[in-house]
Write a structure and sequence with these properties.
- By secondary structure, this protein is of the alpha/beta class.
- It is built from 13 helices and 16 strands.
């Protein structure tokens, strides 16, 4: 059996490489120019992007037959594969894809990506694995800019749904009762980006306008920067207003952090999950909610339509580009979209409260969907086949 090297043990790697892998794993030391826990794509103080590239520079590969990277590429002389969630090679230097008016910068960015694309075209790269059909589509769009590598790289490109372990047995979902006072749960460290403000505004308004009884729980670090907004960030006054609403409400439970085991228990005991996000590469929390027998309200951003729909949950439709991303070019546009999001969220929540029987049906359907489409066993068998045939 092949020995597989990996370079990081952060959340995405645990989900897609480490937990449940059928092969012996070894963490190899690396120097990565991108640190997921520290990277800031925009420095608000000076309003400039900090350029980062997902390139692994491996110090030692002793004792491994091949590498499995995440979002990264390498020029190391060893067989490797990489799982990715947006583009690969991953970098913020993508102005050439956006018809940037700064032609000099676009040319420079494209040159940087070309050097990294060469690593993928190299015979040592065996597969690049997209987490969603949406980011596979994005990768094909990127490859159009590099015709000299397109055919070679496209042959290595495959899509495998990320795995999600069952957090309940189906019989438990079947017997799960809807709470008499409905429990809504939001989980997301990036509070503003994932729709935290819209949730607080909408649920507060429903409380003010009706006598409906419900409970809202927020688990978030409260991060306020939203890369989907670009330079049109919410003001400090607006952020402070949201904080005041949370602090003055006796029906909102707020936690900055919760130990993962406890968080999963909270999901099992909740009725409806919340992720009305402005931007997301995938939406792992949706899978966790569904595997807990808890249907979710989401937007239609990026890969979310692949894992949530009106049959298994509830969807807020926002206008998006060809790659499922919201485009915001002014404060007026941002507020117009925000109003759209809030009105849709409010309508959905009120309908759920008035007709809670729908929760049960969606709980079972969402659980069945995630069990079939995101089976850990099937996912790991596919990885094992790739390792065996490639390394």
């Amino acid at each position: 059996m092949k020995n597989i090297g990996y370079t990081n043990d952060s959340y995405p790697e645990k989900r897609t490489i480490i937990e449940g892998n059928l092969h012996p794993l070894k963490k190899v030391k690396s120097l990565n120019t991108y640190y997921p826990q520290k990277a800031v794509k925009m420095i608000p103080i000076i309003g400039k992007n900090r350029e980062v590239a997902f390139e692994e520079i491996i110090f030692s590969t002793k004792g491994v037959d091949g590498l499995h990277l995440f979002n990264s590429v390498t020029n190391k002389n060893i067989p490797w594969v990489s799982t990715f969630e947006t583009y690969i090679p991953r970098s913020t230097a993508t102005s050439f894809l956006k018809n940037d008016i700064n032609k000099s910068k676009a040319k420079k960015d494209k040159s940087k990506i070309k050097k990294l694309m060469k690593s993928i075209a190299n015979e040592n790269c065996k597969k690049i694995i997209s987490l969603s059909n949406q980011n596979l589509k994005m990768e094909l769009h990127l490859l159009e800019e590099f015709p000299e590598y397109r055919n070679i790289v496209e042959e290595k490109l495959i899509h495998i749904n990320p795995p999600q372990e069952k957090l309940m047995e189906r019989r438990e979902v079947e017997t799960k009762r809807t709470n008499s006072v409905l429990k809504f749960l939001f989980v997301g460290k990036d509070f503003t980006r994932k729709g935290g403000r819209e949730i607080i505004d909408v649920f507060t308004k429903i409380k003010e306008e009706t006598d409906f009884q419900f409970e809202l729980t927020i688990v978030s670090l409260g991060k306020n920067f939203n890369y989907a907004f670009g330079k049109y960030q919410d003001s400090e006054e607006e952020i402070e207003e949201v904080k005041n609403k949370i602090n003055s409400s006796n029906w909102i439970n707020f936690y900055e952090q919760v130990e993962n085991k406890k968080l999963l228990e909270m999901m099992k005991k909740s009725d409806v999950g919340l992720l009305p996000t402005w931007a997301d590469t995938y939406g792992y929390s949706v899978l966790e909610f569904q595997a807990s027998g808890c249907p979710v309200i989401t937007t239609n951003i990026r890969a979310l339509p692949e894992i949530n729909n009106s049959s298994v949950g509830w969807v807020i439709d926002l206008p998006t580009d060809n790659f499922g991303e919201v485009i915001i070019e002014s404060n007026i546009m941002k507020e117009k979209l925000r109003k759209n999001l809030q009105e849709s969220l409010k309508s959905i929540v009120i309908d759920i409260i008035k007709n809670p029987s729908q929760i049960k049906e969606k709980s079972l359907k969402s659980f069945d969907q995630v069990s079939i489409n995101h089976s850990v066993e099937n996912y790991m068998e596919k990885l094992s086949s790739i390792y065996t045939n490639s390394f």
